[in-house]
Description:
- The complex is a heterotrimer.
- Chain A is built from 8 helices and no strands.
- Chain A is an all-alpha fold.
- Chain A has a domain at 1-85: NADH-ubiquinone/plastoquinone oxidoreductase chain 6, subunit NuoJ (Four Helix Bundle (Hemerythrin (Met), subunit A)).
- In chain A, helix 1 (2-23) runs antiparallel to helix 2 and helix 2 runs antiparallel to helix 3.
- Chain B has a single domain (2-111), classed as NADH:ubiquinone/plastoquinone oxidoreductase, chain 3 (Methane Monooxygenase Hydroxylase, Chain G, domain 1, Up-down Bundle).
- In chain B, helix 3 runs antiparallel to helix 4.
- By secondary structure, chain C is mainly alpha-helical.
- Chain C has one domain.
- Helices cover 65% and strands 6% of the residues of chain C.
- Chain C is built from 12 helices and 6 strands.
- In chain C, strands 1-2 form a two-stranded antiparallel sheet. A two-stranded antiparallel sheet of chain C has the order 3-4. A two-stranded antiparallel ribbon of chain C has the order 5-6.
- In chain C, strand 1 (104-111) and strand 2 form a beta hairpin.
- Chains in contact: A-B, A-C, B-C.
- Chains B and C meet through helix 1, helix 3 and helix 4 of B and helix 3, helix 5, helix 9 and helix 12 of C.
Amino acid sequence: xxxxxxxxxxxxxxxxxxIGMIVHRxxxxxVLMLIITLFSIAGFYVLLNAPFVAAVHMIVYAGAIIVxxxxxxxxxxxxxxxxxxxxxxFSRVLAFIAFLVFLxxxxxxxxxxxxxxxxxxxxxxxxxxxxxxxxxGKLLFTAYLLPFEIASVLLLVAIIGAVILAKQNLKPSQ
Amino acid sequence: MEKLIxxxxxxxxxxxxxxxxxxxxRLLGPKSPNVVKDVPxxxxxxxxxxxxxxxxxxxxxxxxxxxxxxxxMIFLYPWAVVFRDIGAVALVSMMIFIAVLVLGLAYIWKRGxxxxx
Amino acid sequence: MADFIVGAVEYLSKFIFxxxxxxxxxxxxxxxxxxxxxxMQDRIGANRAEILGLRMLGLFxxxxxxxxxxxxxxxxxxxxxxxIFHLAPCISIFFAVMGFAVIPHADTLIxxxxxxxxxxxxxxxxxxxxxxxxxxxxxxxVLGAWASNNNYALLGxxxxxxxxxxxxxxxxxxxxxxxxxxxxxxLMEITRAQGDLLFGFLPKWGIFLQPLAFxxxxxxxxxxxxxIPFDAPEGESEIVGYFIEYSGMGFxxxxxxxxxxxxxxxxxxxxxxLGGWQAPFIDGWILxxxxxxxxxxxxxxxxxxxxxxxxxxxVFKVCLVIFMMMTIRWTLPRFRYDQIMNLGWKMLLPLSxxxxxxxxxxxxxxx
Lengths: 174, 117, 367
């Protein structure tokens, strides 16, 4: 009962905040809305009995990536960005097409889930066996060992890319 | 379920505490605005530039490195928990993983991205 | 009825811990800090506040300070973003308070035969939870700085948050060593695993098994709470910090957040490295000396006494760590900002990676 109530409350919050993020003209408020959305999604993971995923979601998305966003907003003087931002006719058309595509997807999803009954909404049973720390660790080092090592290379590339982008004209340290 | 209620109570207590501090101060504190107070606080002189100028890109550098090392750290946690159960495979694969990242750290060090200037 | 009593006692005990940790220690800390600095610098220190002629070594200053903050103007500067300006200190204090949810403060208490974990929320990912909450601490700083409409506040906020995220990496990676040794991210499990004795006389505490991680965690923890020698973001009287435009309780909340984070870091240092609530050598003696007869109708006598002793041991250790942090504060001079960044990225981060590699190899071969 409590889970159901919480699920709908969080769902409402997530969707509202996501819409707010897109609609709001101030970048900082958009980031704030995004934080709320991320928090509600972390709440879903908790409800799905996957505390490890929830914590990782909070640490990486809400803790690290949002901080990066906030830094960008502050570094680039985006306080008055909303004044400069105008919608052209072309972007309006594009936005409408994107809206139609997403609407179609949403209708399809709802149809499959509720009318065809093809999607098991009660993910709880499935996730609960995979959501805790030891089982994720075991999977990571048995079935997904190669992707895990590739991830380290990916991170290396990202580090190099970041340095090259931000520190282009820097001399090597002595 | 029990944990969920505990967390909810904790969230309520946290919000409540912040609201009490904020609300009591708004209630008890005087309000006496004046023109001089409204000027941004800067060494006693009028500010020569508006707030929100562009800041140095080095802060961005720190933030992006933080994101990358944060993700690395996330991989280390489940590894550390199951390390004893899996044994040699976990040891070797994590050594490779850490070696690749130390390579990255060495690169940014060498490039001078860690120098604060 | 029995269930109700169990629940009531459970919530009461957790509530007592919370109140002591959050609302008693932190105001007292403001006094301790002033008095300790005075003693260390051969001054008298806070001694003026009195109630009916009673001075109590100036202890009432803690009360007077907080009362004063409540009655000062909560001033919002003109160009500020009003909503975020009000929200930022609240966010700050909210996450500091949330951190206390997973601190285990005693072993299982048995009430009417039912075990109750002495931890506000018994999460099995406590360590990750703590880390997530720690990451959120940056929000309050950055948002407050941005909303103030002040160049210095913005710069101070960026410097503070850059420092915090730099040291967060070191904190996180140093704790991997602890997980390697105790094989859990559950703070209660980690504390329990520290109950055994090493070679028959040394408690199996984190500080003995992970000495390097302890130093990294302490250094990074102090940097995370922005205390001297890492207080470049605040520098109370000399450097302009991110809360320069805040007054009254707005400032008070940032101030309290710092103290709460100090307590939180101390609690976690104790949990990870100093055996948490473990009271070695005494616990066995208590269990033997007292019987397990019923006490006050719902408790077992020896279990009840043990829980109290463990709680006191935990509080004592936390106070010891806080005392150490304050002593460091009044001993070392402030680091320059580039030194702070260098220490974080060039010293602590490589050292913590080194610590993991060495620990993993030792754990692999010794088991």
